[in-house]
Write a structure and sequence with these properties.
Blueprint: E1 6-9, E2 22-27, E3 32-38, E4 42-50, E5 53-60, E6 68-76, E7 81-90, E8 92-100, E9 103-110, E10 118-127, E11 130-140, E12 142-150, E13 153-160, E14 172-175, E15 186-188, E16 191-194, E17 199-206, E18 211-214, E19 220-225, E20 228-233, E21 241-249, E22 257-263, E23 294-297, E24 300-302, E25 312-314, E26 321-324
Parallel strand pairs: 16-22
Antiparallel strand pairs: 1-2, 2-3, 4-5, 5-6, 6-7, 8-9, 9-10, 10-11, 12-13, 13-14, 15-17, 17-20, 18-21, 19-20, 21-22, 23-26, 24-25
């Protein structure tokens, strides 16, 4: 978010109480630093984005006295997450984001309601500025949701744990009744040329399904926010190089897309614009080819710092010097 990387860690309990904080961490170049404490003892979290705003759902499992415990939805404000909605849940174990034809749904897995594990889990639909219950699904001690696309249809799987009598119970897979709209994934531009010094470049992603971006290039780090990938590249002191970013949208006909960051060489060409070169190979001749030879006045040849004989000059500090009788610059006298 805002070209920054956050990590949400729900904390369920400590050794004394279920009344604990969950934590949001902010990435600081090479470590995570605590950013915000959220006063809820959660067991799972799910982030999602709607209309360029960022949200976080926390699944609250147990209050310390009851499994009938509200889960919560937070919205990222100017500089913190703020609670915008309580949702009644029963031993909530998991939130799962599902995007169908550009419409956001969230599924919650209800585990136990203080009396039974045979109870409904729910799918909520985002409408306006909050989640509204959309569908109930019979579950048995539900612990997890997952969603996936096959041949243009959206599926959801629910993991059932216990039916009040046995763990030997069926889990279920459901299919959305209508096919997904045909859609493509677009990432532009296909490559960016960047200089050898450290810097940042961006790519734009267009897709009506959720997407992810990853890289295995060691000198690239990436962040995603809304429809933008921000790539941070390190300084290059060697030959030119190319890094790749893979963008994937589940179910897209042309997914994945691979874009490139092409970084120029950081090797300095000492011969470009060279006027004179004096290696002192037994004399003060210019070996650049420009003919700017030196004339030695009093200085004497000695060993250089590497022990090479007649490869350096010693000056008395009074009147010894090497002079240039004629000097040629860019082919002119």
């Amino acid at each position: 978010m805002n070209n920054k990387t956050y990590l949400a860690i729900p904390n369920f309990r400590n050794d004394q109480t279920f009344n604990v904080n969950s934590n949001i961490y902010l990435w600081q170049n090479d470590y995570f630093e605590i950013f915000q404490n959220i006063p809820c003892g959660g067991i799972d979290s799910e982030s999602f984005n709607v209309d360029d705003a960022n949200y976080l759902a926390i699944a609250n499992h147990y209050s310390g006295s009851s499994y009938k415990h509200n889960s919560q939805i937070f919205k990222f404000g100017e500089n913190s997450f703020e609670k915008i909605q309580d949702i009644q849940t029963n031993g909530a174990f998991d939130w799962e984001k599902i995007i169908i034809n550009n419409q956001l749904y969230l599924a919650v897995a209800n585990f136990y309601d203080d009396s039974t594990r045979e109870l409904d889990s729910y799918i909520y639909k985002w409408e306006g500025s909050s989640l509204v219950r959309y569908q109930s699904i019979k579950t048995k001690g539900a612990t997890d949701w997952d969603s996936f696309v096959i041949d243009g249809y959206m599926y959801v799987a629910i993991a059932n744990y216990h039916d009040n009598k046995t763990h030997n119970t069926e889990s279920k897979i459901y299919r959305w009744t209508e096919p997904l709209l045909n859609f493509n994934l677009s990432v532009t531009p296909s490559y960016k040329k960047v200089p050898p010094n450290t810097g940042i470049t961006t790519f734009i992603v267009k897709s009506n399904q959720s997407w992810t971006a990853t890289t295995t290039t060691p000198w690239l780090t990436i962040q995603t926010n809304n429809n933008t990938i921000t790539a941070n590249y390190e300084e290059n002191t060697d030959e030119s190089r190319t890094g790749t970013i893979t963008v994937t949208a589940e179910g897209a006909s042309n997914s994945p897309q691979i874009v490139e960051v092409r970084q120029e060489s950081g090797i300095i060409d000492l011969e470009e614009g060279l006027v004179a070169y004096y290696p002192f190979n037994g004399n003060a001749n210019d070996e650049s080819g420009n003919g700017n030879h030196g004339t030695v006045y009093g200085a004497i040849l000695i060993e250089d710092r590497f022990g090479n004989k007649n490869s350096a000059y010693s000056f008395d500090g009074i009147d010894d010097y090497i002079g240039l009788e004629k000097f040629y610059l860019q082919g002119k006298k």
